[in-house]
Design brief:
alpha+beta; 3-stranded antiparallel beta sheet; two-stranded antiparallel sheet; 1 helix; 5 strands; 26% helix; globular
Length: 62
């Protein structure tokens, strides 16, 4: 799971394996496979980098 920040400043953890899509509308909007939508302060690039780092931590840097 990765830590993200809602627009109001609250932090939360998101299961990256349930993400369906990430869009810029202009805020970063994450739609989950169950239909829930999260709008976060991080850019799409930052979210993707957090996802990459999480996968490296879990699966190694192979």
């Amino acid at each position: 799971m990765i830590k993200l920040t809602k627009l109001n400043g609250d932090e939360f953890y998101l299961n990256i394996y349930q993400i369906e899509k990430i869009e810029c509308r202009p805020d970063t909007t994450i739609t989950m496979m169950n239909g829930h939508v999260y709008i976060v302060k991080e850019t799409i690039e930052e979210v993707i980098e957090k996802m990459i780092q999480y996968n490296r931590k879990i699966f190694g840097d192979n």
